[in-house]
Amino acid sequence: MAYQGKKLINDPDEVVTEFIEGLVETYPGLQYLDGFPQIKVVLRADVSIDTYNKVAVISGGGSGHEPAQTGFVGEGMLTAAISGDVFTSPPATSILAAIRAVTGPKGCLLIVTNYTGDRLNFGLAAEQAKSEGYKVETVIVGDDCALPPPRGIAGRRGLAGTILVHKVAGAAAEAGLSLADVAAEAKHASEMVGTMGVALSVCTLPGQVTSDRLGPGLMELGLGIHGEPGAAVVDLQPVDIVVSHVLRQILSPETQYVPIRRGSRVVLMINGLGGTPMMELMIATRKAVPELQLEHGLAVERVYTGSFMTSLDMAGFSISIMRADEAILQRLDAPTKAPYWPVGVEGNRPPAKIPVPLPPSCSTRNDEILSQPHKLTEQGCILEAAIEAAAKEIINLKDQLNEWDSKVGDGDCGTTMYRGAVAVLEDVKKRYPMNDAAETVNEIGTSIRRVMGGTSGILYDIFCKAAYASLKRSSIITAKQWSDALEASIAAVSKYGGADAGYRTMLDALIPASAVLKERLDAGDDPLTAFHLSSEAALIGAESTKHMQAQAGRSTYVAVDLLALVPDPGAMAVTAWYKAAFLAVKSKLQPSES
């Protein structure tokens, strides 16, 4: 069913005028003609026909494609841009006003997207300007690769590849070339580029209803930029499949849209159509670049990802590929003050991936320890058994933790802890230098950080890092050192996490466990007894969270009566791995009692 589209506008008839007013307020290098709003022309504020001694580059078209074309006005790109009403060609009178405003003795180049209204209005303005004595050349850009040639007298539609032509022409003009040479470079660039678009939705014109042409689960291939139907409607596909299809269509040797062959150097533009998040555009880019390189044998010299020529709020994107020689690359890399050109994209492309740097001292020492054949000491065997037992207990408790968390949080505590436990089990034999307790605890934090997202992952890593800093101060690790390390870890988690006892978090198990462990060791109890009593204190602390009002984490959004039904999952997880570690240590030290 069609519906009225929601827009943050005032009067639908004034959207173009008010957009331009906001644009020139934002960018002081832009201004508009005094005939505004009837004549909607944006031009460079630094250009005066009395002193301007370079070719003026002018473009324009219907509005609704922002930032095209007004956002590309600036030194090194367009000299002026003319805006029509939404999806409507600007009238010849406005185009002629732009020509008169910026064209000096070297003349002007009109860059026109290939639509009938644009061709006619720009053509009429060009002829009138010539009759007034202006030097005018015109380049028509038709880069659409969705429809098989020929297209009768209409030809291929002008799409986002036009922006690349703007940049080439603007840089050539800024370099001081003659009108004939600027026009020749622009025409050459237009013949080197092909574009195809895909859409997940149609666009909503201001003040109008949204068409229901595209239902759920459907997408459109080969659309234009005015909401007109595409070449085909198909079932929604993963973006990798869509990108592959579009690239094959543009580069098809049968249709020969663009003269690009294996070994060619190319420029890639992924263009959002107005309603597509940057995340999705980047996902498309990440597929397109290696496919162009590996499947099509092309050298990708530049990549531009963003919204350059949109269709109001349409969800979708277009892909443009331009064959690029050194001259075109120099024009694309030339400086510009056009506000919406991605100035950070220039020069050679370094490798996309480099190795993650590791702390040299720790990584080197661990590599040396692990590369040398060695036998585990008694302490190393005990530590290994404790780590494995703790990880396995968390794995077994996954579903129970998720069940608790589904009632007081977002339901993924068990899954998150499970990922960490699995990583620890995988790394325990190959990464952990068991005879060095401090380094082993440090590596546990690294394993957890690698796979556990969210708050719990970083808190456990902080926990391990603080314990490592405490343990590494001692050459021999005793029960007292473990107690001090636990105390240091709790202090660090509390400091950076902001929680304390009574906040209904993992600390409500850790704090009583640490307090009892320290108290019993100071009283002279043997370590096993102290750890046993400590593990019981952890359980009591975790169970007590049922009666607490949450002051940290997602449980703060849950009603008190619901919290009373279950203990804090994070605290229960602590209780589980802490007790499992204790039992494993006890089994190693008192095997006959196990």
Q: Into how many domains do the coordinates divide?
A: 2
Rg over CA atoms: 33 Å
Strand order of the largest sheet: 2-3-5-4-6-7
| Top CATH class of the largest domain | Alpha Beta
State the helix count. Answer: 19
Question: Spans with pLDDT under 50 lasting ≥5 residues?
Answer: none
Give the overall average pLDDT: 89
Secondary structure: helix percent? 40-55%
Strand-pairing-aware structural class: alpha/beta
Question: Which shape, going by the Cα principal axes?
Answer: elongated
Estimated share of beta-strand residues: 5-15%
- How many strand elements? 14
Find the CATH topology of the largest domain.
Rossmann fold
Structure explained in plain terms:
- This protein is α/β, with parallel strands linked by helices and 594 residues long.
- The protein has 2 domains: 325 residues, 3-Layer(aba) Sandwich (Rossmann fold), CATH 3.40.50; 234 residues, Serine Threonine Protein Phosphatase 5, Tetratricopeptide repeat (Alpha Horseshoe), CATH 1.25.40.
- The chain has a 6-stranded mixed sheet with strand order 2-3-5-4-6-7, sandwiched between helices. Strands 11-10-8-14-12-13 form a 6-stranded mixed sheet. Strands 1-9 form a two-stranded antiparallel ribbon.
- Strand 2 and strand 3 form a beta hairpin.
- Helix 6 crosses helix 7.
- The longest helix has 21 residues.
- The mean pLDDT is 89.
Summarize this structure briefly.
The chain is 45% helix and 13% strand. It is an alpha/beta fold.
Annotation keywords:
594 residues, alpha/beta, Rossmann fold, Serine Threonine Protein Phosphatase 5, Tetratricopeptide repeat, 2 domains, 6-stranded mixed sheet, elongated
